[in-house]
Amino acid sequence: MKILVGVKRVVDAYVRVRVNSDGTGVDLTNAKMAINPFCEIAVEEAIRLKEAGAADEVIAVSIGPQAAQEQLRTALALGSDRGILVETEEEVKPLAVAKILKTIIEKEGIDLVILGKLSIDSDNNQVGQMLAALCNYPQGTFACKAELQDGKIAVTREIDGGEQTVQLDLPAIVTTDLRLNEPRYASLPNIMKAKKKPIDSTTPAELGVDITSKVKTLSVAPPPERTAGVKVESVEELVNKLKTEAKVI
Amino acid sequence: MTILVIAEHDNSSLKPATLNTVTAASEIDGDIDILVAGSGCQAVADAAAQIAGVQKVILADHTCYEHQIAESMAPLIAELGKSYSHILAAATTGGKNFLPRAAALLDVDQISDIIEVKSADTFVRPIYAGNALATVQTEDAIKVITVRTTAFAEAEQGGSASVEASDFVAEQTMATFIEEQLSESERPELTAAKVIISGGRGMQNGENFVLLEKVADKLGAAIGASRAAVDAGFVPNDYQVGQTGKIVAPELYIAVGISGAIQHLAGMKDSKVIVAINKDEEAPIFQVADYGLVADLFKVLPELEQAL
Ligand SMILES: Cc1cc2nc3c(=O)[nH]c(=O)nc-3n(C[C@H](O)[C@H](O)[C@H](O)COP(=O)(O)OP(=O)(O)OC[C@H]3O[C@@H](n4cnc5c(N)ncnc54)[C@H](O)[C@@H]3O)c2cc1C
Description:
By secondary structure, chain A is of the alpha/beta class.
């Protein structure tokens, strides 16, 4: 079985981002970049399946700038077998990402695709679902548990009211939620080994995918600022203020 | 313009998220139809018909829609959606699951999680866990959108829409529903509660959540949690507030033993009044709190219960 995992280069989850001065985006100059945390969970899940003998090969794909090589190297150091970089300096919207991934699935013959449920920069939560539609595969989104059984995969999904389990035929698309697993750290020897693992480079155009989108970002603004209020000294004072000042209880 | 709103429901009752979504639709300015897809859900369609401003309810009542599995919902929405200018669903785990799949079938991008309607083609949505707000414009012929429910008021009752049945059936075998484990609670739902009291890692264990429950009982509040509390197994995952949990905006949000990481703030900083109880006066949660109490929660919670 071949598994494809998506790896997106995003700003580190703990960096406090700010809108740039001309209001066109956020200022990422010198910001620490990382694998999107949900993608990291996807890589971990794939590697566990390989370690359990259920998968033969784990291919990591990243769509992004040249520098996304770094994130692919991390995915390789964690245990992926090889990488594919679909290089572009443009922002690629979810539908185009899905179209690119579809061409790779077709070329490589993939049985299971594991993606993050969202990337923490654009917060879209769309790619897995769109890819599933384009391939006409079933989808197990927001997974907190995934188990292969008799050529199918049972996925437990985090839903608003609790959890839901669905059983999917393979090939299938799974998107990860935070509690699916706890990703490992790459060991030094594995980081060294990863340097020798292959990364193929291609472009959206070479794959025949038009990445222009009909959605344009007109402007980006900071959210309304919330300012710190007052410190109260006691529970009594707190309850008083909530009753008479804030009038919320 | 005609707008199709996908109803959120459990086959027996219409969920309030539908009402928020209808309000977002009404700000786009066009005729509003609602799709109720489910199984044995006539009562939901009847309830949807009473929402003010709704013209028509389309009822797709078939066992294949019973659990609103995306593999069946998406073809239905894409088929019906062809004759609409906009398709809207609440950004709940339901809408987030099936709507992008429908958008891809229609070959259009989706605009996720809007918090404002600027015009029929321009919307505002948070990015970077709410640290920035993007104004986006789409030229797609069919605009597919999920709606952050806390950003829109609930639509009023008082409509009398017609109910029309759809005979479109999207049976499939690639995905099978196995089971659902839903949290049972007498308390208000997190996303609909006027008051929420949330606990974090500072609660130390699940048993200690009783301290929050006692306060919640007095306030008629829902109980929430940080990711750390959920990961540690203190409470189930559906309690989680934040970027990856629920987005809430109650009148009053009380954060207890929660440090205030950006991902947590992303889910609650639009609350009207925020109270933070934390023993660390440097905790970032105090930067967004209207009222901060620097104290040990184990001392303060029983006092709070008494004082209410
Ligand atoms: C991709 C991603 C998504 C995430 N999504 C979410 C999300 O949706 N929601 C979310 O909440 N987090 C999310 N997180 C995690 C987030 O970054 C924080 O790790 C988490 O919110 C911390 O939870 P906490 O505040 O309960 O724990 P901590 O940060 O450990 O804070 C515990 C607090 O309790 C206080 N405390 C301890 N004992 C006491 C006491 N006796 N009395 C009073 N105060 C006490 C401490 O001073 C401290 O401030 C996400 C992280 C990532 C990377």
